[in-house]
Design brief:
alpha+beta, 16 strands, binds adenosine-5'-diphosphate, 5-stranded antiparallel β-sheet
Amino acid sequence: MNKLKNNSQNQLRWVILLLAIAVILPTVCLLWFMTQAVKNERLAIRQKLIDSYTKRAEELFFKYPETFWISLDKNIGFFSSHLIYDQNDNLTYPVTTKRFPELFENVVLTESINEAWNLEFKTKNFEEAMKEYNKLLETSSDGMIKHECHLGIVRCLTKQNKFDEAIKVCHDLAYPSQYIKGKYTPELISQDRLMLVNLYSRTNHKDLLKELQNQFPDTIKLFITAEKKIFVLNQLIDIAKEKGFNEKLQTEIQNAQRIIDSSLISLTAVEYLEDNSGLKLFSQNVFRKIESSRPLYGIYFKLSDSKMLGLLTAEKMSQFWQKSVDDFTDELVFCRIYDNKGQLIARQEAAEGEIFSTLNLTNYFAGWKTELYLRSGVFKEAADKKRYIYIWVASIVIVLMFSSTLLAGKAVLKQARLNKLKNDFIATITHELKTPLSSMRVLVDTLLEGRCESRQQETEYLQLISKENLRLSKLIDNFLTFSRMERNKQIFDIASASPVEIANNAAEAMQAKFEKANVHFSLNVLKPLPMIEADKDAIVTVLINLLDNAYKYSNDNKQIELDVFVENNSICFAVKDNGIGMTRRQMKKIFDRFYQADTSLSRQAEGAGLGLSIVKFIVDAHKGKISVESKLGKESIFTVKLPII
Ligand code: ADP
């Protein structure tokens, strides 16, 4: 019996272990697959993003600049400034002081003009100085000397506050009726005109505004050195502003400012390129950075009879690229553009992310590169969305797996329990049948061998055999009932029955036994009792079982009671004894099949631990209830309640 029990316990352990593995293993696998799937999903999303954005970047960073520069078609207006070279790479624009020194050859000072200057600057005798200048004008044929004399006269008149006269002389100088070749160069004219404007401004001349309106465009057009142009234009702007002509000369000032900027840029480039062997630094149609005092970008084009180096300031270049950068940027990506020297040119402000691609630009921007970034957290967001779906699916699958395993486990356990039951059943039957059979065999053997001493002993043995026989058939009855119960084959013959009759039948069945053992038995019926719908014989069996237990599990001076009464619309049959009683733990288990409390009396009493489970089965089938109250060593009360219909 113990071996069987151990075996089934082992089986149960195995079943639980296998079921756990059946759930845990697939769950772990599923989780692993899920993590892999999420990882793959991330990679797939990443690749998809990279592909689509790389394509977009190519549009913006290759095609757009390409078409822009082709359509620009060497239009110098777009550039911040430019330089022009002749076929032999000689700089022709801008004109710089350094490149045209002959423009600034010192005036050959003659003794006579020296004397006039002494009178003007040292003696400060302006009248006399003017006389000297006029004398020289008549005698000298040198245009430069003549120009110098006129200037001297203008200065002397001004110093004597004879502004009107000074203006008149200066005007003739600034707008000469004819140029004296090689001497009155545009340089001198621009200088004279500036002097005229100065005189106008000092006298608040009514024509100052008109003069400025003329001079701004004239100076811009004059073929003079860049340095001179910058100087004169700056002076004109200062005068215009000082005299409050800002608004009236707004366009002129703006144009002048642009020319100043452009000239400054071209001068910066010239200065740098002279030190660095000029155009040789450039390959045609490719932007190169000029690391001059102000960073510039140069691009060199061949024109029909000259060469042009277009210049862009770093700011203008940034503006050009910013459009592409802005067009490319969205909530997922951003980019940065670096020039051929690795200098950051354009970027999206304050962004953090990881580079997913670097494009090396070509053609006009050979040597430049664009870094494409994915903003931080982009994949996480995209993958998270997917992950939630996976988590949901996985949770549902796990729950389904758990429940199906639970159901399967239940079924397996039920089967295991049934097997155990079967084994227990067989073991119990064998054991229980063996005891009466062997005692009967001993008695029968004694009788057959004629070893009885007296007739009385023979009768006694026969009575014992009959008793054992009776016990055996009772046992077999119980087993059969139980077996039918197990197979759900017990069919009850429900009919109207009298509780009193049932109680009387049970009492009668037990009467002989009780009398023999001097049991103090009382049947108390609290009338009137209504009829009940029940299988009379089955309920009698219930009461006999309970009364038999009361008999079995009480010591000497047995006092047994069967009370029948009505309570809460039920007929109650209460079997009371003054027996060994039970513990709480035992009370919980006594209705289980084959349960027997481990007491000496239980072991002595014949039984298979089936009586109460049969009782419960019958009571349940009648939609009734059975309860037990007990005090260990004192008493037990079993109450069966059957509903009154
Ligand atoms: P058995 O054939 O062993 O009597 P039962 O199912 O009738 O099987 O009873 C199960 C167990 O309940 C008994 O072994 C016994 O220990 C306990 N029991 C039943 N009735 C009583 C009672 N009136 N007093 C004390 N113990 C009882």
